[in-house]
Design brief:
It contains 18 helices and 13 strands. It is of the alpha/beta class and about 425 residues long. The chain folds into 3 domains: about 120 residues, N-utilizing Substance Protein B Homolog, Chain A, CATH 1.10.940.10; about 55 residues, Alpha-Beta Plaits (2-Layer Sandwich), CATH 3.30.70.1170; about 200 residues, 3-Layer(aba) Sandwich (Rossmann fold), CATH 3.40.50.150.
């Protein structure tokens, strides 16, 4: 039953290139926690291993590209289990049952048993070992040091842990940890507010501590960005791409809920989440406005955050589907939007002691390094500030303008630059 539902979700991914959260939410009302964990493992594991799975299957099936999608996704689901140490008998037999007719069942059964026999004989190129698309592997090697490429691939092929950000407006990190002892937690290595949940047993949005506003679920790289902007109590701050409010509410936390934050976004449903999260966390200095950061004009701001929309390739350990959705041409599409955001941010910044932090959760130079060069060439009166990432124990690659975070156990790849007008 679980494998059949995993197959249905994979077919949904095939059609939409993503799986809506509501699709998983439907099954939470049906399955036990254990079965729900298996369902997610089967779905996201298959997607995470998709490049590798297809490589194996192409070695075994002569005209693999011509197989109908329905049969292909059954094969992929079974292959994931075989390549990742599921019990062979269960993996083959339970997967075969998904097929509707005898011919397809026979084909799937024979192919999966053939994979069991021959998988150890097939040599894998490095990009296949980490299940990275070849075009992205080549791009990384053309643009980054080898050790960065290796760490990116390792991270992409792993599962990122769940990290909480302590809401210090209501509770200290040590106090929150004492409440969460039963959850198997540890303090994060980089963020002063972070708590790593090693083995969550159920959704962390369902705890009393969440509803009381003691924490926000936010990965550790994201928690570093507001610290770099360093807003002070009483300042006037603009967040140009705020929804759903993780960095926005952290800005308010750093300001001790004193001052003003204008939070912009173009998605009304996601913008509403900023208000909902603010209320839960006990924050009342955030004002929201449904407008693009490209179009907005208002008063001048002391500090501006641009957590820009991007290709999100740094989030592949959290959202493995991104590796199959993004194409090389998307770098340019997003870069055009990001340049417009940067230009408008400069127009909305106070000219004395104002600063802009630009960040993305992607690794393309078109969306990061080349944007910074564009801004530097266009505005001769700006400079890029040095960021002390050693303070947060973050290894980085510096491009002359900003910083690419090396990923590790808890950090995902991120880019950040800090701009000041002279």
């Amino acid at each position: 039953m679980v494998r059949k539902d995993a197959y249905l979700l994979l077919r949904e991914f095939d059609k939409k290139h993503y799986i809506p959260q509501k699709s998983f939410d439907y099954f939470t009302n049906i399955y036990t926690n254990q079965d729900m964990a298996l369902l997610k493992n089967l779905v996201w594991g298959t997607i995470r291993n998709l490049v590798k799975i297809d490589y194996y299957l192409k070695k075994l099936i002569k005209n693999y590209k011509d197989i109908p999608p329905a049969s292909k996704w059954i094969l992929r689901l079974g292959a994931y289990q075989i390549l990742n140490n599921f019990k062979p008998y269960v993996a083959v037999n339970e997967t075969v049952k998904i097929a509707k007719n005898r011919k397809v069942r026979g084909f799937v059964n024979a192919t999966l048993k053939n994979l069991l026999t021959k998988k150890d004989e097939i040599n894998l190129p490095e990009w296949i070992e980490y299940s990275i698309p070849k075009w992205l592997y080549d791009y990384l090697n053309d643009n980054f040091p080898n050790d960065f490429v290796i760490e990116y691939m390792k991270k992409s092929y792993s599962i990122n842990p769940i990290t909480l950000r302590t809401n210090t407006l209501k509770i200290s990190r040590d106090e929150l940890i004492s409440h969460l002892n039963d959850y198997n937690v540890e303090t994060s290595k980089h963020s002063p507010f972070g708590i790593i949940i090693k083995n969550p047993q159920f959704p962390l949005e369902n705890t009393e501590y969440y509803h009381n506003g003691f924490y926000y679920i936010q990965h550790e790289s994201s928690q570093i960005i507001p610290l770099i902007l360093d807003p002070k109590p009483g300042e006037n701050v603009l967040d140009m791409c705020s929804a759903p409010g993780g960095k926005t509410t952290e800005l308010a936390q750093l300001m001790n809920n004193e001052g003003t934050i204008m939070a912009l976004d173009i998605d009304i449903d996601r913008l509403e989440l900023v208000s909902i999260n603010s209320k839960r966390l006990g924050i009342d200095i955030i004002k929201t406005k449904l407008i693009s950061g490209i179009e907005y004009s208002g008063e001048k701001y002391d500090k501006i955050l641009i957590d820009a929309p991007c290709t999100s390739l740094g989030t592949s350990s959290i959202h493995p589907e991104v590796l199959h959705r993004v194409k090389r041409k998307d770098f340019i599409t997003y870069s055009d939007i990001q340049k417009q955001l940067l230009e408008n941010a400069i127009e909305n910044l106070i000219k004395t002691n104002g600063s802009i932090v630009y960040s993305t959760c992607t690794i393309s130079k078109e969306e990061n390094t080349f944007n910074m060069k564009y801004i530097k060439d266009k505005y001769r009166n700006i400079e890029f500030e040095k960021i002390n990432l050693e303070k947060y124990n973050i290894k980085y690659y510096f491009d002359g303008y900003g910083y690419y975070f090396y990923p590790n156990d808890t950090l995902i790849p991120f880019y950040v630059a800090k701009i000041k007008i002279n």
